Amino acid sequence: MSYPGGPLAGIKVLDAAGMIAAPSACALMADMGADVIKLEPPHGDLLRGLIEFPDGPDPWWELDNRGKRGIAIDLSKAEGRAATHAIAKSCDVFVTNFTKERQQRFELTPDDLRKNHVELIHTSLTGYGSTGPDQSRLAFDHTAFFSRGGVLDIMGEPGQTIPAGRAGQGDHTTSLAILSSILLALRERDLTGIGQAIEVALMQTAMWTLASDLSLALATGEIPEPRLRIETPSPLVGRFKCADDRWIMLTMAPEGRYWERFCNAIDKTEWISDPRFVSSESRAERGAELMLMCDEVFSHKDRDTWGHLFDDAQLIWGAVHSLTEVINDPQAEALEAFVDIKDFEEPLRTVAGPFHLADSDIRVRGRAPNHGEHTHDILLEVGFTEQQIHDLLESKSVS
Fold this sequence. Notes:
Layout: E1 12-16, H1 21-31, E2 35-40, H2 59-65, E3 69-72, H3 78-89, E4 93-96, H4 100-105, H5 110-114, E5 121-126, H6 141-147, H7 151-154, H8 169-192, E6 197-201, H9 202-209, H10 211-220, E7 239-241, E8 247-250, H11 259-265, H12 270-273, H13 280-285, H14 287-298, H15 303-312, E9 317-319, H16 323-327, H17 330-334, E10 338-341, E11 348-351, H18 375-381, H19 386-394
Parallel strand pairs: 1-2, 1-4, 2-3, 4-5, 5-6
Antiparallel strand pairs: 7-8, 8-9, 10-11
Helix pairs in contact: 1-8, 6-9
């Protein structure tokens, strides 16, 4: 039996962050039933309208701000900062990606907001952390996550142009670290009655995604490096282009357990007794030669045919899908990976959160807010009078 309104029903969040990583964590909290207030500057969030979509709502904006209410505040004005403090005092969680300097300038540091509200959980997202030589360096996920975090350098093949990170991929990965941290802090507040300050850095989240490689480097001093595709020690952990120019990925470890089945599936039973390939060690010694031999084999059948053969042999493989194939994958449908936002003339298809709780009311609860859409209502809720709201609007401290 689900709790009415979702697992975060009754939790109030002030989202004073821009672009993707921190706002997407807040969108997931809105899916969980939290009352999330999106605070934007007078000119709007940088993400708003970044993707031109003339025939409907902005898919990026809706993805990362769905289910929130919106208020527009000019933090450069003392009255705007006072209004923000009043809202934050009514909240359980405050989330920002302002640098330390901007938090100090706008009086939004943990000390500022928690001084008379120790229950508040103050959450800061940075590119590189709030200490050290790069604490003030501005960042996007392309610079702090993919580049500085080591992700791009270890991908691809040596001597080739480095691959490009995809839009928001590092951000949405980091959003899960932000969400996890906030949920842990809420749980600890249940135990102690006191909130705390949280920090999450794009660079450190990238390092966690590379933790297997980094742990090896830290323990042994050996730095894993990108390598040519044919330098894979075994084709059973390789990738191959099929007759239809689509790719297939094999990942079978320990590969010795699967070698005979693999040879049977590709109709190369003679390789089973071939002295060159009789053991994992001998196959590794001739890895490049064996990969080229497999390239020739894979070039004779299309990807789907190989997939059926490998399924029959109970091998571990994956089709390298295009995004069109991902969208139309029946397994994505079974995962309920996509969901409709129904507050438009035509429902907007978007991406669901990457987890399921069988007995929790977690769902998209509505569209993203228009700029400053709920300014009046939110200020009324935290104790401002109609006259005070009028004065704030007149002074353009809020909009």
